[in-house]
Amino acid sequence: MTTLPSGFARARRWLRDHPLAFDATLAFCVLIAMICGSFADPGKGGHGPTFGTRTPEAFSVLLMVLAASALVLRRRHSMAVLAVTGGLTATEYIFMDPPAPVVMSTVIALYTVASRTDRPTTWRVGLLTMGILTMAAMVFGSTPWYSQENLGVFAWTGMASAAGDAVRSRRAFVDAIRERAERAERTREEEARRRVAEERLRIARDLHDVVAHHIALVNVQAGVAAHVMDKRPDQAKEALAHVRDASRSALNELRVTVGLLRQSGDPEAPTEPAPGLAVLDELVDTFRNAGLPVEVAGADRGPGLPAAVDLAAYRVIQEALTNVRKHAGAGARAEVSVVRVGTTAEITVLDNGRGSAAGRPGAESTPDGGGHGLLGMRERVTALGGALTAGPRYGGGFRVHAILPLEARTGEPEQTGPAAATGERR
After folding, report:
1. Cβ neighbour number for residue 259 with a 10 Å cutoff
2. Cα radius of gyration rounded to whole Å, the chain
3. What integer is the mean pLDDT of 104-131?
4. Which three-class secondary structure state does DSSP give residue 338?
5. How many CB atoms lie within 10 A of CB 100?
6. Helix, strand, or coil here: 37?
């Protein structure tokens, strides 16, 4: 069964959706109130009004009907409606005694103007209306100027102006709060999208480093196995063992990386630590097994290296050695050094391969002349507030040099000039 509050709520929504019907209903109610009030005699001697002792004149009824009819258009032409109702009210005070309460329509019209205009306009229009109607009531009425009827005109028009201004202020306040909430919601959505994009970029970098490194090793070892399968099966078996180890390592790292995408309630969350310089020897051994001589000239693995810096250093070395193995050519050698200098860690990877990255076979270029491998390294380094330079060495070969602050910072670091202008193997 429909409850009374729900019925009122539906009626209110319907009237809000049909403002002209609401204004017509209001005008009819005001007309009824004015006609009922016109039958009341203010009374003499302070005994209060009496009903049924007088009957409104036809002219007063006509003025009340015209004033109430004007209220139907109070939203569309508020100033014009106020002028019409105010003029009809002044006419009633001038020609009729005692006057009918036509002023009720002026009170409604003045409230509408105050609620739909600014405060200075409300002050000007309100004071003008109060002054004209109060003076008309005091000058042309038969009652003393200080009678309660005359003071009531002043009070009701003043309260209409104040109530309309208060409603307008509240609407402006509510609109400001709503706009602020919508802006805050948009800001939260943009921040969420930005964080999602950053996380996707980070995962893409991890997957690129893992897949590029291990697939390159698998490709090299598989080629060796195919080449010596018939003549030297022992060496082919050893190469296939390296293929198996590299693929297993790739699967493990992929499992750890993709495991980070699990929801908090999913079972078997990854527990393996992220790779770092602690396993640098194992990383170097995989390249040595693939036929790339790698020398570790210096490896500062002292305590206190932040986890983000440790991971970035490991990935830079991994990607640089992968590029050497893929593009430096036969007979190339590589040298790795990790040195702590003050508050920074410097990672250097050198090789004596032939030529620059641009002329090496298999190099993939990005539109700006670089490839995804070096671009990923640069993003890792600059995200921590460091700098990365890479390019051909004098006399042949390639050099990758990264400077990482030991206190990694977040935010958008400035892109250094050398890092932004280097070439790339990938």
Report:
1. 14
2. 43
3. 90
4. strand
5. 25
6. helix
CA dihedral 13, 14, 19, 20 (to 10 degrees): -170
Number of DSSP helices (H) and strands (E) in the chain, helices first: 12, 7
Distance CA 319, CA 214 (A): 10
For the chain, what is the largest distance between any 2 Cα atoms, rounded to a whole number of angstroms?
Answer: 133
Cβ contact 161:204 at 8 Å: no
User: Is 183 or 238 the better-scoring residue by pLDDT?
Assistant: 183
pLDDT of residue 258: 62
Burial class (CB in 10 A: 0-12, 13-18, 19+), 398: buried
- Which of these, 352, 384, 348, 366, lies nearest to 425 by C-alpha position? 366
Give, rounded to a whole angstrom, the gap between the first and last alpha carbons of the chain.
73
Residue 125 has a CB neighbour count (10 Å cut-off) of 20
Instruction: State the Cα–Cα distance between residues 79 and 125, nearest whole angstrom.
Output: 9
Report the DSSP pairing between strands 294-299 and 334-341. parallel
Buried b (16+ CB within 10 A) or exposed e, 333-364: ebbbbbebeeebbbbbbbbbbbebbeebeebe
Residues 6+ away with beta carbon under 8 Å from 355: 392, 396
- Quickly tell me which residue has 């893929």 as its tokens: 326
Number of other residues whose CB lies within 10 A of the CB of residue 257: 18
DSSP per residue, 212-276: HHHHHHHHHHHHHHHHHTTT-HHHHHHHHHHHHHHHHHHHHHHHHHHHTTS-TT-SS---PPPP-
Asked if pLDDT for residue 344 goes beyond 70, the answer is: yes
How does DSSP classify residue 99? P
Q: Which two tokens stand for residue 289?
A: 């097994």
Please tell me what DSSP assigns to residue 53.
S
- pLDDT in the model for residue 107: 92
**Residue 230 Cα distances to 18, 296, 401, angstroms:** 91, 35, 42
Q: Which pLDDT does position 364 carry in this prediction?
A: 41
pTM across the whole model: 0.47
Window from 94-98, 153-157, 206-210 with minimum mean pLDDT: 206-210
Per-residue confidence (pLDDT) for residue 425, from 0 to 100:
47
Q: Tens digits of per-residue pLDDT, 235-278? A: 777 777 777 777 767 666 666 666 655 544 444 544 555 678 88
Q: How far apart are CA 334 and CA 294, in angstroms?
A: 5
Is-cis flag, bond preceding 98, omega within 30? yes
Contact in structure between 390 and 374 (CB atoms under 8 Å): yes
Asked if residue 92 has pLDDT above 50, the reply is: yes
Q: How far is it, in rounded angstroms, from Cα 323 to Cα 319?
A: 6
As given in the structure block, the two tokens for residue 411 are 């935010």
Amino acid at 226: A
